[in-house]
Design brief:
Structural class: mainly alpha
Shape: elongated
CATH topology of one domain: D-Maltodextrin-Binding Protein, domain 2
Helix content: 25-40%
Distance between the termini: 19 Å
CATH class of one domain: Alpha Beta
Strand order of the largest sheet: 2-1-3
Oligomer: single chain
Largest sheet: 3 strands, parallel
Number of helices: 4
Length: 109
């Protein structure tokens, strides 16, 4: 898919902050482009993280995942917890499992 095709197609908005634009809109604005976000439709694009795309297309014959036709700035992920739980064995185990999962490369990539 070309950048022109990407920008012309209708898009579903994925916003982690709840506002009406997302990180993809910021990446497009940096190169002087924009996209058309719609509320509903049949053939729309959704720009989501790789791990979400893999989960969405797994077993689906109606969805496909392609790389974006422009550079996307990587987002930084952070974990935050109450300092009281720093040394709790169960909390430490859970944080280590989350870190391992998020650091592991996706299969097939």
């Amino acid at each position: 898919m070309t950048l022109d095709e990407f920008c012309e197609r209708p898009h579903a908005l994925v916003s982690f902050s709840g506002d009406l634009s997302g990180a993809i809109d910021n990446d497009l604005a940096r190169i002087g482009r924009s996209r058309r976000v719609v509320l509903a439709g049949t053939d729309i694009l959704a720009t989501v993280p790789d791990y979400a795309a893999s989960a969405l297309i797994d077993g689906s014959s109606q969805l496909r995942a392609d790389d974006a036709p422009f550079e996307i700035n990587l987002s930084e992920l952070s974990m935050v917890w109450n300092g009281v739980n720093d040394n709790d064995p169960a909390e430490r185990w859970l944080r280590s499992k989350i870190a391992q999962h998020m650091a592991a490369p996706l299969s097939g990539h």
